[in-house]
Structure formats: C-alpha cells, structure tokens
Design a protein that fits this description.
With about 290 residues, this protein is α/β, with parallel strands linked by helices. It has a single domain, classed as TIM Barrel, CATH 3.20.20. Helix content is about 40%, strand content about 20%. It is globular, with a radius of gyration of 18 Å.
C-alpha cells in the first residue's frame, strides 16, 4: 500500500451501524465494531457513533468486549439538553476509564448563536461537531465555529434522492471550512469510494440515486487545501473512473494534477476528519473491487 493511501484513509470511517439504512440492533453493532477492531482493516476505523439516550444500552452490550486491550472511542449524538448530555458523557468516561472514551460529540443546531452558547459548556477535552443546516447563511455558522474553535458536520445523503446535497453545495461547505480553518466531518450517503448511481437503501427493489463518493470528497478537500480557488475541484467531485487515480508514496495523481503527501497529511489533520457510515464493510469492499486497496 502506498503511503498516500494510508494517510488518506487512516481512521476515516466512523461506524454508524445503529442508523439507517443498516439500522442494526445495539448487540449486532457492538459485535461488529469489536470484530472490525481486530481485523486487518482496523486502521481505517474511527469511532463508534451512538445517541446519548442509548449509552446504557451500549454499556450493557459492550461490557464483555471492553477489556482494555484496545481503547474504544465513541462519538455521541447529543440531545436537546446539552448539559444533561455532558453529564452522561462524564459519567460514562469515569466508569470506563482506560477501556472506552467518549471524546467527540455531535450537536445539531439551527442557529449560529447555538454554537456560541454550546461551546461555552463544552469541556476542553471533548471535541464537538456542530451539524449546521444547508442554507444561504452558511458563512455565519462557519464563522461562529472558527471563533469558538469548534468543528462542522455536513449531511451528505440520506434515504431519499433529495437528501443528497448538490456537488456545488458540498464544495462551498468545504471551501468555507478550509478558508476558516474549521475541521469537519461528513455523514450519510458516503458508502462508496467514487460517485455512483446506487440503491439508496438495502431493501429489495430500493430506489436508486446519485451518491457522492468518499474518495471524491476527501481528495477534493486535499485539492482545496492545496489551492482554495482551483475550479477543477468540481470535476474531481464528479469523477467516476478509478483508473484515473494513482496512489504513489509521495503523491496522488489525478488527471494532470498532483496532490503531494504533505498536503494530504494537512488536509486529514486540519480539515477533512472522518465520515459516518452505517457500514464499515461496504466501503472497504468497494475499495478492493476498484483495485484501490488490497
């Protein structure tokens, strides 16, 4: 494996098996995560995503797996009562010290002022991703995140075709985040490496739709980190051919462009952090089927 691919994909997938379209039970999701942590592809695995209201259920299912051999990291979806969420997070971390830790929080907001208010309540060792609405005052939200040193979250898909934002909308979000030095994560609709037309759920005869690819998105973030105004990013976000990418140790080649390793390292550390997926197996298997990863 090339060094650039290793850096690009390290801890990139946050496992969200509890959520649609997979929506497996807590017992299955926990067992899956434990299995993935032991597998050869575990280096791509990030956090286990769980709503704060299901932490007790998680604890009951995970107790036998939390043996301290490998620290489980969790990202918790906050409810509307942020102080109570933080109390539950602190209680969990105290109980499972050395075995599991909630070190990330995901908070949905509808106004920029909620970011400022929420940031005042957060302990310094808990990073928060604020899911912001897709609207015309995006800059107001990103500015609030930059001022409070918090992170952004973008929803990149869902169970229906209209849940997927346009390529332009995703690029606008990333461009503003990178310009403001705001790290971000994505969630939903990124099961596949490259842009494609796929079933939107796992049901028989499910409707299909155009889905963004996680390689498209993360490489585009690297592209914008290298040149914030490069217009070719639109073509990169829409790329569907795996053969046009070359992953060398010191750079990634795409078309007539080069993304050096140090840019990829910076983009993953400072900008595009991870994406949530209800499947860990599907993205990995797709990378293998496209001959990108072995």
């Amino acid at each position: 494996m090339s060094q650039t691919l290793r850096v690009l994909l390290t801890e990139i997938i946050d496992y969200a098996g509890l959520f649609p379209p997979s929506q497996v039970s807590m017992a299955v999701a926990v067992r899956n995560f434990a299995t993935y942590l032991k597998g050869k592809d575990s280096w791509m695995l990030g956090r286990f995503i769980v709503p704060v209201g299901r932490l007790d259920e998680f604890s009951a299912a995970a107790e036998k797996h939390l043996n301290g051999k490998r620290l489980w990291r969790l990202s918790v979806l906050a409810d509307e009562d942020l102080p109570e969420t933080l109390t539950e997070v602190a209680r969990f971390n105290g109980r499972y010290e050395g075995r599991a830790i909630i070190d990330a929080l995901e908070i949905k907001v509808s106004e920029a002022a909620e970011i400022t208010a929420g940031a005042k309540l957060l302990p310094p060792d808990l990073m928060a991703y604020f899911e912001i609405p897709p609207n015309d005052i995006l800059a107001d939200f990103i500015t609030a995140l930059a001022i409070t040193h918090q992170r952004a979250k973008i929803r990149t898909g869902g169970l229906t075709a209209d849940a997927f934002p346009s390529t332009d909308a995703v690029i606008k979000f990333m461009r503003i985040c990178i310009a403001a030095n705001v790290p971000f994560k994505a969630t939903a609709g990124l099961h596949h490496p490259l842009r494609c037309n796929k079933p939107l759920t796992y049901e028989t005869n499910a409707p299909t739709g155009i889905m963004h690819g996680f390689l498209n998105l993360f490489l585009s973030a690297c592209f914008l980190r290298q040149d914030l105004n490069n217009s070719s990013v639109h073509r990169l976000m829409n790329e569907i051919e795996p053969a046009v990418f070359e992953f060398d140790d010191d750079q990634i080649k795409w078309a007539d462009h080069r993304i050096p390793l140090h840019i990829i390292e910076l983009a993953r550390k400072k900008n595009a952090i991870s994406f949530g997926s209800c499947s860990f197996v599907e993205p990995v298997e797709d990378l293998i089927s496209l001959n990108i990863y072995q």
